[in-house]
Each structure stands twice: as structure tokens, then as C-alpha cells.
Amino acid sequence: MADIFDVVADATRRDILAVLLEREQVSPESHGEISVSEIVAALGLSQPTVSKHLKVLREAGLVSVREEGQHRYYRLDRGPLETLEDWLIPFMSSDAAADAATLAGIEASDAESLKAEQRAFASALGKAFAETAHQVSAVVAPIKRR
Q1: What letter would DSSP give residue 10?
Q2: What does the pLDDT read at residue 28?
Q3: Is residue 32 within 8 Å of residue 75, measured between CB atoms?
Q4: Could you tell me which of 80, 89, 85, 47 has the C-alpha nearest to residue 61?
Q5: What pLDDT is recorded for position 102?
Q6: How would CATH label the architecture of 4-76?
Q7: Nearest to 58 by CA among 80, 28, 90
Q8: Distance between CA atoms of 111 and 117, rounded to whole angstroms?
Q9: What's the pLDDT at 88?
Q10: DSSP string for 85-122
């Protein structure tokens, strides 16, 4: 299974995720589902290219698929993205610790030390969580295929 960062690093896969998000927002009655042919039309890519990227997204748990005869309907699965967001948040809000420390009357040097400790902890936690999630997925994936 590919690392989620590798999966979302590809522009085509991000475009597919954007199409799925748009379907979810614009057409709630569809439950966010969209056919492969509609994704192909929306992005102007070949069907094999879209299918290849959908497979990677599916294996990463970012999309789910419903089969109906010859047709495949995909929808966004936010779980892995929420995990990614949880990991990113400490990096995005690094000024929050300094602001809180200032309000609490903590010296600037203490606030910088606190931010560094928080970043180190968040990084370690994020790495441990990502590794654990990867290991669990590697064990569960073969079971799900049965």
C-alpha cells in the first residue's frame, strides 16, 4: 500500500478527488457517487488512466466503489484525509502556541521552547499513527479481498 502522501502527491489523483468532492457537494442525492465515464469526461483523460489512478485511490482507502453490472460508481471516503488533516494541523497552527503563551504571560523564549516540543511530539505522533495505520491496512486488505 502506498503512503498517503505519495497518493495525494499526484496531480491527477488530486483532480479525481476534487471531482468526487464536487459531486458530493453539488449532487447530494447521488450520495457522492459518480461513474468512471463521468470522471473521464470531467477531466478529459483516457479511461485507462482514470482507472489506474482510481485503483491507487481505492487501495489507499480514499475512495470506495460500488459495482452495478459493467459500471463502477466511486465516492470519496474522508477517513484517510481526516487522518492526514489531524497530522497536518499542528504544523499549520504553529503560531497558536505562541499566541496562547503570550496571553498566559509566558516569556517568548519559553513559548518558542513549547512550540518546538509540540512540533516534535506532533511529528512523532503523526509518524507513529501513519505507520500503525499502514500496518493495519496491510493486514486487513488481504482479509477484505476474501
Answers
A1: S
A2: 82
A3: yes
A4: 80
A5: 56
A6: Orthogonal Bundle (1.10)
A7: 80
A8: 10
A9: 81
A10: HHHHHHHHTHHHHHHHHHHTT--HHHHHHHHHHHHHHH
Question: What span, in angstroms and rounded, lies between the C-alpha atoms of 100 and 30?
Answer: 43
- What is this structure's pTM? 0.62
- Name residue 92's amino acid: M
pLDDT digits (tens, 9 = 90+) for 17-75: 999 999 988 888 888 899 999 999 999 999 999 999 999 999 999 999 999 999 999 99
Task: Give the C-alpha separation, 107 to 114, whole Å.
Answer: 11
Alpha carbons 98 and 114: distance in angstroms, whole number: 8
In this prediction, residue 61 carries a pLDDT of 93
Contact, 84 vs 126, CB < 8 A?
no
Residue 74 β-bridge partners:
34, 65
Contact 13, 19 (CB under 8 A): no
- The answer to whether the beta carbons of residues 64 and 58 sit under 8 Å apart is yes
Q: Is 22 exposed, middle or buried (0-12, 13-18, 19+ CB in 10 A)?
A: middle
